[in-house]
Write a structure and sequence with these properties.
heterodimer; A: 38 residues; mainly alpha; rod-shaped; B: 210 residues; Four Helix Bundle (Hemerythrin (Met), subunit A); 0% strand; globular
Chain lengths: 38, 210
């Protein structure tokens, strides 16, 4: 049970950092693409 | 295409690793952190190697795109390093009984994190854009010295961190039932890094060229 808490915390922290960084870059990419196609 | 490949590989790798792969004989299910910690650790080093290589190209041939590539690679690299340090701490508190020790492997990875921070901050810090790019590129190339220290820290010094289990003489000592999902996860994160770098580079190039 104790182990599960640490495993969940690491996946939550890791995926939050990597996921949010990816979303920010994807947003920047799509905004640039949309601006250029206008 | 890269995005779909990344999602498929990460789903297969994590479902296999977390659901089907066996637990460690000593650590039990704590070993499941490995499927995130180890690919991030590998990619933090690989991304730094690429950042330094692109920086060297910029310093030698003054190609602006090489510096932009180095910056894009450093941004994804710092994310991998941060995740490696955080997941390592969470693994450490449960198996070693401490969040942090100043052992050679942990300290050299922390130095890697600060090298990334230094490179990214210096690229925006002072002087003309060309001077900022040159000084940050020089820092990235000098910081390359840290990579062999990270790799062989567990061999050169007596560390709390375990020794090499994958890239070592005589082949990997990890069980193949754990190695297979680990490699699939690593491949998924490689596609993540490639998609990240290409999207960031494209956006930066389009922004800088009116």
């Amino acid at each position: 049970m104790n182990n599960l808490f640490y495993i969940l915390c690491s996946y939550l922290a890791g995926l939050t950092i990597l996921g949010s960084a990816f979303l920010l870059v994807a947003l920047k990419f799509f905004k640039t693409t949309a601006r250029k196609s206008e | 295409m890269g995005l779909i490949t990344m999602l498929v590989l990460l789903h297969i790798g994590y479902l296999w690793g977390l659901m089907l792969a066996p637990n460690d004989a000593v650590q039990g299910n704590m070993v499941k952190i490995m499927y995130l910690h180890v690919p991030c650790a590998w990619l933090s080093v690989v991304c730094y190697g690429l950042t330094a290589a692109f920086s060297a190209i910029y310093l030698i041939w003054k190609l602006p795109v090489a510096h932009l590539l180095a910056r894009s690679t450093a941004i994804v690299g710092i994310c991998f390093t941060a995740v490696c340090l955080i997941t390592g701490s969470l693994w450490g508190i449960n198996t070693w009984g401490t969040w942090w020790v100043w052992d050679a492997r942990l300290t050299s990875v922390l130095v890697l994190f600060f090298l990334y921070v230094g490179f990214l901050l210096m690229g925006r810090a002072f002087g003309s854009p060309a001077r900022r790019a040159s000084s940050s590129s020089l820092l990235a190339v000098v910081g390359l010295l840290n990579l062999p220290i990270i790799k062989w820290s567990v061999t050169w010094w007596s560390t709390l961190h375990q020794g090499a289990t994958f890239l070592k003489a005589g082949g990997p000592s990890i069980d193949v039932r754990m190695l297979a999902p680990l490699l699939i996860c690593a491949l998924g994160w490689i596609f993540y890094a490639l998609s990240f770098i290409s999207m960031h580079l494209y956006a930066t190039l389009k922004k800088e060229t009116p």
